[in-house]
Amino acid sequence: MNKPGKRGLTRLLAATRHSRDGLVSAWRSEEAFRTEAVLALAFLPLAFAVGDGLAHQLVLVVCCALVILAEILNTAIESVVDRIGPEHDPLSGQAKDLGSAAVLVSLLLFALAWGLSLWQWWQG
C-alpha cells in the first residue's frame, strides 16, 4: 500500500527545495565544497574553449560535476556519522575515510582529464 503524501508536481517541487537546501548547507558548512564549486564555475566555460568537440567538452564538464558530487556525498556521510555520536568508532572512521577517498579519486580524475586536455590545447 502506498503511503499518503506529496505526489506529482508537488512532490517534485518539494524534492527540488530539499536539493536546494542541501546545496546551501554544503556551501555554508564546507570550505572544500565552496573551493571546488568556485573552481568548477571557472573551469566550466573553459571546457568549451579547451575541449576538442562535444564529447571532449562533455568529459571535462562531467569531471567538474563528479568532484562536486563526491564532495556532497562525503559531507552527507560525515553528517550521518557525526549524528551517531562523537566517540571514535572504527566503522565510523572507515566511513569517513571512504567518503574522503571518493573525493580524492574524483579530484585525480579531474586533474588527469584537465591536465591532458590543457597540455594538448597548449601544444596547439
TrEMBL record:
Binding site for substrate: R11, A32, F33, R34, T35, E36, E71, S100, W114, G115, L116, S117, L118, W119
Positions bound to a divalent metal cation: E30, E78
Signal peptide: none
Free-text cofactor note: Mn(2+), Zn(2+), Cd(2+) and Co(2+) support activity to lesser extents.
Active site: E71
Membrane topology: Multi-pass membrane protein
Transmembrane segments: 57-77, 98-122
Alphabetized UniProt keyword annotations: ATP-binding, Cell inner membrane, Cell membrane, Kinase, Lipid biosynthesis, Lipid metabolism, Magnesium, Membrane, Metal-binding, Nucleotide-binding, Phospholipid biosynthesis, Phospholipid metabolism, Transferase, Transmembrane, Transmembrane helix
One annotated GO biological process: phosphatidic acid biosynthetic process
EC top class, as a word: transferase
GO molecular function (one): metal ion binding
Cofactor: Mg(2+)
GO cellular component: plasma membrane
Domain of life: Bacteria
Keyword check for Ion transport: no
EC number: 2.7.1.107
Catalytically driven reaction(s): a 1,2-diacyl-sn-glycerol + ATP = a 1,2-diacyl-sn-glycero-3-phosphate + ADP + H(+)
Main location per the UniProt record: membrane
Compartments reported by the entry: Cell inner membrane
Record function comment: Catalyzes the ATP-dependent phosphorylation of sn-l,2-diacylglycerol (DAG) to phosphatidic acid. Involved in the recycling of diacylglycerol produced as a by-product during membrane-derived oligosaccharide (MDO) biosynthesis.
Family the UniProt entry places it in: Belongs to the bacterial diacylglycerol kinase family.
Protein name per Swiss-Prot or TrEMBL: Diacylglycerol kinase
Native source species: Parahaliea maris
